[in-house]
Amino acid sequence: MITKDVIERSPIRALERSIHGGLGLGKVGVVLGQTGVGKTAALVQIGLDALLRGKVVLHVSNEAPVNHLRAWYDELFHEIERSTGLENASTVLLELERRRLLICQPGSSLKLSKLNEASGMARGALGRDPEVVLFEGFDFDDATDDQVRSLHELAAGLGAEVWLSLRAQAPSEAQGPSLPAAIAPFASLVDVILSLEPSGAQVKIRVLKDHDRGPAGTPPLVLDAVTLQLIDQSRGLSGHDPRNRELFVLHSGGARGAEAAFGEMAERYGLREIVFSFEGHTSRVRSRGLQLLSDAELRMGDVSLRYVSHRLRRVFPQAPLVRKVIQSIWHQIRPCQQVFVVGRIQADDTVRGGTGWGAELARRWKKQLNVFDLERNAWFRWIDEAWKPVEPVIDSPMFAGTGTANLDAAGRQAIEALFERSFGG
Questions:
Q1: Which is deepest, 89, 209, 402, 418, by most CB within 10 Å?
Q2: What is the pTM of this model?
């Protein structure tokens, strides 16, 4: 079972030291950063640590489906199991699930009313009020001072600590503890503000506000982009070998052509694979790691086909199957830090075909986008609003692989060489 040693070795202890003992009951904290930087991973780590300490946790997201959230928790739990030699892991995991409620409320943002509603649901489902509440996607843009104060009232009423995530460009280290415009008006109304900044294979975590204290002097913290765990550098924890193949996951649609080739290479090199698809997807040829999306999950990636046609300079038919393919691409790209596409870059800088929607999403969400151009027989990366030649390597734990259904020998060789550079030897 859970021992004091396992709890003490949790990297959350490092976070608590950096904010003088933690957030605290009745308090509100904010984790901010750009899309894909690791806000969900940070909140999941906070939630899992609370569960290991016997607390009740409510986690609400406006983006990640429940099965995605559950996968984050399971992966981090199994990482703790591997690193600590935890006994009776299956029994422990079942007990944690009994004290955890995961809710997805799709939409552009979460309103205060939805947070109150979710808290009531947690009380009914878990038998008592949650002691740690995690909200992804709170609507700061339209929030008022009174609404943010109500978050404190919610936290105090539950006897819980409340953590929110905020999509915002984190200030650079050179800018110091300055606050993004999205949170600055409410800085006096929240207790802790953490900033996540990408830094190579890791993510720096800086304290921008520590209750009523200044952030100076706090120990350095990073989020390991491979294990998704916080690392306390002051204690010399170095994380894991980024070439550990078991920690990498390919996201794709499993369709014939480039996606099938990516899947074959992932299987050959011992990487995990998730194939996002739906009932009736006739182009799918791979079923390893198959995840069939429900209609509700597909709707999370909904977008006007007219808009897609406008962005890609191509007319897409208003057919249910085409719409579902476009919707499923949203799920493939959303959680990934790197996106690899095999196709053709057009004169207007878009990527030809339905594959191009994945590339457009990657650009919109500021992912690292790499395209192997079949016309020029070379890889290019979208950098500073232009395509620049590169020789890419897979170095992010979650990456997407997609591309043309009409894969030629050069395209297949490019995929094989990519995996050899990344995982060979």
A1: 402
A2: 0.61
Question: Is residue 9 a contact partner of residue 145, using CB atoms and an 8 Å limit?
Answer: no
Report d(CA 70, CA 102) in Å as an integer: 8
161 - beta bridge partners? 132
User: Which residue in 330, 320, 265, 280 sits closest to 300, CA to CA?
Assistant: 330
* Residue 32: closest CA among 136, 102, 105, 118: 136
Give the model confidence (pLDDT) of 256-302 as tens digits. Answer: 999 999 999 999 999 989 999 888 888 899 999 898 888 888 777 65
What distance in Å separates the CA atoms of residue 164 and residue 150, rounded to the nearest whole number? Answer: 13
The average confidence (pLDDT) of the chain is 81
pLDDT, tens digit (0-9, with 9 covering 90-100), for 135-194: 988 888 888 899 889 998 999 999 999 999 988 876 665 555 678 888 889 989 999 998
SS3 call for 302: coil
Q: How confident is the model at residue 238 (pLDDT cuts 50, 70, 90)?
A: very low
Rg over CA atoms, the chain: 22
CB proximity list for 136: less than 8 A, separation 6 or greater: 39, 40, 43, 59, 60, 61, 62, 63, 64, 110, 164, 165
Q: Strand, coil or helix: what is 62? A: coil
**CA–CA gap between residue 231 and residue 226 (Å, rounded):** 11
Burial status of residue 150 (CB atoms within 10 A of its CB: 0-12, 13-18, 19 or more): middle
Pairing type for strands 57-61 and 132-136 reads parallel
Inter-residue contact 165 to 4 (CB < 8 Å)? no
Lookup result for tokens 């999950």: 297
Q: Tell me the residue type at 30.
A: V
- For the chain, the structural domain boundaries read 4-235, 245-423
Q: Which of 31, 33, 32, 34 is nearest to 364 (CA)?
A: 34
Report in angstroms the alpha-carbon separations of 28 from 64, 73, 199, 219, 239.
22, 22, 27, 21, 29
Q: For 274, list phi and psi in degrees, rounded to 5.
A: -120, 125
Q: Say whether 245-423 and 4-235 share the same fold.
A: yes
Answer whether 209's CB lies under 8 Å from 177's CB.
yes
Which CATH number is associated with domain 245-423? 3.40.50.450
Distance CA 223, CA 232 (A): 9
Contact 196, 38 (CB under 8 A): yes
